[in-house]
């Protein structure tokens, strides 16, 4: 995303812990988190935001639209 800082926002309450985003990320930016949301699910976390290339595959793969990618 044009050398700008990439922001990844995960809506923990929408995340159902399917890990599709973790599996598809080419840079291994995401991982399973330790916190549990209101639905009793271990949500995904951003473990290496500096590695993100902004490809958006994680957001595309998320069946619950819980991930937003932006640059700023």
Note the main attributes of this structure.
about 70 residues, alpha+beta, Alpha-Beta Plaits, two-stranded antiparallel sheet, globular
Secondary-structure blueprint:
Blueprint: E1 6-10, H1 20-24, E2 30-36, E3 42-46, H2 57-61, E4 67-71
Antiparallel strand pairs: 1-4, 2-3
Task: Provide a descriptive summary of the structure in words.
- With 72 residues, this protein is α+β, with helices and mostly antiparallel strands.
- It has one domain (6-67): 2-Layer Sandwich (Alpha-Beta Plaits), CATH 3.30.70.
- Helices cover 14% and strands 31% of the residues.
- The chain has helices spanning 20-24, 57-61, and strands at residues 6-10, 30-36, 42-46, 67-71.
- The protein has a two-stranded antiparallel sheet with strand order 1-4. Strands 2-3 form a two-stranded antiparallel ribbon.
- A hairpin with a 5-residue loop joins strand 2 and strand 3 (42-46).
- It is globular.
- 21% of the residues are buried.
């Amino acid at each position: 995303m044009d050398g700008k800082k990439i922001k990844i926002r995960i809506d923990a309450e929408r995340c159902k812990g399917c890990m599709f985003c973790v599996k598809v990320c080419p840079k291994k930016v995401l991982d399973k988190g330790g916190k549990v949301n209101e639905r009793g699910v271990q949500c995904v976390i951003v473990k290496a935001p500096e590695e993100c290339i902004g490809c958006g595959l994680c957001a595309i793969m998320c069946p619950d639209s819980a991930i937003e990618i932006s640059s700023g």
